[in-house]
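Posted in: Structural Biology > Protein-Ligand Complexes

Title: Requesting predicted complex, adenosine monophosphate in pocket

I'd be grateful if someone could produce the 3D structure tokens for the following input. Sequence and ligand are given below.
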Amino acid sequence: MKNVFEEIVKGKIPCDKVFENERILAFRDIAPQAPVHILIIPKKTIKNIEEMTEQDIPLLGEMLFVAKQIAEKEGVSEGFRLITNTGPDSGQLVPHLHFHLMGGRRLGSLG
Ligand code: AMP
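-- Reply #1 --
Done. Output follows.
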């Protein structure tokens, strides 16, 4: 499958951006599953958590801190979920690491 997130990082495909710095980009999911559904991705190409290395630890920590800040800004800091699908059994569709930040409704149990 074509890696749409790399195209978004390069600016070749538009996105509804909510955060950007030199390392991280966050934008609204095109098919939201909750009132707030934002994807947080590294600009660096990392396929998923399985492929992260020790060098990526600060980047992943920063992604979590960005998630917290976005949750506050979006008004869902009292209850939100962060999900990162990893590999085919998880249903990962886009082969570029991303956290789904979801909130704004009562979220069901994980299945
Ligand atoms: P995953 O199954 O974890 O790989 O999730 C990929 C997510 O990317 C899905 O929730 C899609 O709706 C979302 N998505 C795919 N293409 C785009 C796009 N161009 N802009 C925003 N979100 C997208």
